[in-house]
Specification:
The protein is of the alpha+beta class and 196 residues long. It has a single domain (3-195), classed as Tgt2/MlaC (Nuclear Transport Factor 2, Chain: A, Roll). The protein is built from 6 helices and 5 strands. It has helices spanning 3-38, 43-57, 60-68, 70-74, 77-98, 155-195, and strands at residues 106-116, 119-127, 134-141, 144-150, 153-154. A hairpin with a 2-residue loop joins strand 3 (134-141) and strand 4 (144-150). The chain starts with a helix and ends with a helix. Residues 6-17 have low confidence and may be disordered.
Length: 196
């Protein structure tokens, strides 16, 4: 093998290895969502299944930092930790609410792009029997998910725009209250679901 080819392999191998690991991260998370739906459990049961996988698979600190923008830079360590923990709870609650029952859904991985050793995009589809498939592109940095683009719409961009608007109207404490209210609403819906 020529030196040029060896150098090319040496440059591409870290990206290929990272891409394989990132694919595993996304597929394990998607498998967890299917398992939560198949469990037949209520909201709390599904959150208990999904929570540990969110903790492992998601880069919540990066999501928190980008979501808050300038406000993140103004927070002290306590404020950053408080927000990141609340944001993680919201992510878990959102998935536990949205993935509430199994109806033969399945995830398909359609490709992986790894432009850098520390960045990749894992492309997937959520195939549903009663609706069109949803494309879900997972963006990862250093092996953890920091953004999901669903049918071309970036969750991180929506979150940043939403949080910026809320902070502008209510301040940072108002944003925390709003997030707590959303989590409580998901829990309340879950209690209503369990009572049916």
């Amino acid at each position: 093998m020529s030196i040029r080819r060896l150098l090319l392999v040496a440059l591409l191998l870290p990206c290929a290895l990272a891409a394989a690991d990132d694919r595993d991260t996304v597929e394990q998370f998607n498998d967890t969502l299917i398992r939560a739906m198949k469990s037949g459990g209520n909201f709390a049961d599904r959150a208990a299944i999904i929570g540990p996988q969110v903790e492992v698979a998601f880069d919540v600190d990066t999501i928190a930092r980008v979501s808050l923008g300038r406000t993140w830079r103004e927070l002290d360590d306590h404020g950053r930790t408080q927000f990141a923990e609340l944001l993680e709870s919201l992510i878990v609650a959102t998935y536990a609410d949205r993935f509430d029952r199994f109806n033969d859904q399945r995830f398909e991985t359609t490709g992986v792009e790894a432009p850098k050793a520390d960045r990749s995009v894992v492309k997937t589809r959520l195939v549903r029997v009663d609706a069109d498939a949803v494309t879900l592109d997972y963006y990862l940095t250093n092996g953890r998910i920091y953004n999901i683009v669903a049918d071309g719409v970036s969750d991180l961009s929506l979150r940043r725009a939403d949080y910026t608007a809320i902070i502008g109207r209510k301040g940072f404490d108002g944003l925390l209250a709003d997030i707590r209210s959303k989590i409580a609403a998901y829990r309340d819906d879950g209690m209503d679901e369990a009572a049916q």
